[in-house]
Amino acid sequence: MREAQPHFIAILPRGDLQSKILDCKAKIQRAVGDQLYLTDPPHLTVFLASFQDRNPLRDTLRDLTTELLSPVIRIEGWHVFEQDCLTGNNTLVIKINDSDKETLRQLQSKVVERTAELRDLKASLARYKTAWQSLSQARRQAVEEFGFPFVGSDWQPHFTIASIRPADWERAWSELRNQPILGSFEDFELALFALNGNEPICIATFALNTH
Q1: Among residues of the chain, what percentage have pLDDT more than 90?
Q2: 162 pLDDT exceeds 60?
Q3: pLDDT class for 211, splitting at 50, 70, 90?
Q4: How far is Cα 119 from Cα 50, in angstroms, rounded to an integer?
Q5: Which helix (H) or strand (E) is 204 found in, with range?
Q6: Which of 1, 98, 111, 163 is the most exposed place for a label (fewest CB within 10 A)?
Q7: Alpha-carbon gap, residue 64 to 206, rounded angstroms
């Protein structure tokens, strides 16, 4: 039997927002060197779990995206997940307008409804073993039920710049503190990634319906 591998489903920005995120990542790289997630392609993680066979997952997403509208996302500067419960670092992300988060949560709900049942339950649970004590009861329950700790109202959709080591934080933050990303963006697609360790590998992308 094939060993289950972590996969994640993400929203990919294209055009101007993609360029802005890449520029921010480059500034952090020059200032403090390699950091967790820094080399990841710009994306907004919707759902992550472990799967033995990605083909049914890919087919399910292809069918689902015929029903999904590309979101309109308003960006309102920076947000920091201090002492991130999964990494222990300070994770710098782009802040999304609250009402647009609700639209994204509706999209996540559809993705989870169609794909969570395809996951490998044991492997998906094992991924959070080392972080289990730092997860709230609600997040533990979400892992057990869906395979991912951040679902529904607890999910804070975001585009990550990097998860930055505390020793490097002040230098990194000084590079971007006064240069927030702002604006409204609507050029996105859905994507499926496999994780090889911490390295994301794009398996497929799916067009979303435009407004």
Answers
A1: 82
A2: yes
A3: low
A4: 6
A5: strand 199-207
A6: 1
A7: 10
Mean pLDDT (the chain) is 93
How far apart (Å, rounded) are the C-alpha atoms in residues 162 and 176?
12
pLDDT for 176 beyond 90: yes
- Measured CA to CA, the distance from residue 183 to residue 194 in angstroms comes to 30
Query: pTM of the prediction?
Result: 0.90
User: Residue 27 CA to chain centroid, in angstroms?
Assistant: 21
DSSP string, 136-166: -HHHHHHHHHHS-S--GGG----EEEEEE-H
C-alpha span between 211 and 208 (Å, rounded)? 10
113: helix, strand or coil: helix
Q: Sheet containing 44-51: which strands, arranged edge to edge?
A: 44-51, 5-13, 188-196, 199-207
Contact assessment for residue 70 and residue 187, using Cβ atoms and an 8 Å cutoff? yes
The DSSP output letter for 180 is -
